[in-house]
Amino acid sequence: MNILVSGASGRMGKEVISCIEKDNDLNFICGFGQNEKLYLGKIPIYNNISKIKERPDVIIDFSNVRATFEMLNFAKNKHLPIVIATTGFNHEQEKIIKDYSKDIPIFKSANMSFDINLMCKIVARHRSTI
Q1: What are phi and psi of 46, to 5 degrees?
Q2: pLDDT at 76 over 90
């Protein structure tokens, strides 16, 4: 699976890229971030969305609100699924993202932390036993 990482220059973006590179079934093909540079000397990181020429199978977004909406437009135009892990959206922006989900597959979570997700599963199980 070919993956575009939005927020590739940030801490979480770099962590996602590191995880992708450890999995033989995943392929980091390009990134989108504030600092346009070459990642490991061979994978492009773009700071201008119109320069992206690679065709990912999915986008993983760990960026910021502005960049997320750029990436959502890109995903919609290219008919690509997107995983949104960016936080800080207001109510109106959440509504806009929901509207985008009518056209493209979107998985959105405010917290991708393993610990938080584990806690949510435990709480959900506990609630179902009460």
Answers
A1: -100, 145
A2: yes
